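[job 4471] stage=fold_predict status=RUNNING
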Amino acid sequence: MPSHISAEARQSVHDAIRDGLWQLDLRPTCSMVASPPEELHGGVRNPLAVFGECGDKACTLCRLREGFETVRSEVVDSCVDRILKKAKDASGDGLIYCSLGCGLLHSDWQILDRLVYSECVNIAQVWLIDVAFDPDLIMSTDFDPEDSVRANAAKDMFASRFGQ
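[job 4471] inference complete, writing structure tokens
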């Protein structure tokens, strides 16, 4: 498992978000994936650039689709609000977070980052389930095998962010 992301890298990411520099866009190599910036302030490599989300403008959850720019943020806000309501009733052992069909983990990262670093919610376990994490399974779908490589890189980065 990769090492945890440094506090400095975490702060650079939060600074980019605060300053409006965290814009997802389509990269030439991944036309159906909306990805965070590859570089942060001063040309610093973004450790979370491997994350992504659906970039298909026909998708109703695509933030790149005209008129839907806030849809993903609204979903994240709704998830965080609902989880916080349940967290009040949770035991001291922490919550178990599970995401099905999580793909390149951008939304899951946003949710857990807020829960852990802004709301101080104790997360005991994280379960991520997606066909893209298994190169053998992805071959039986219409996905490109490279999707599995990127999905696993995102999963490893996610683990370095929230793993033990």
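[job 4471] summary: Strands lie at 25-27, 30-35, 53-54, 95-100, 123-129.
[job 4471] exit 0
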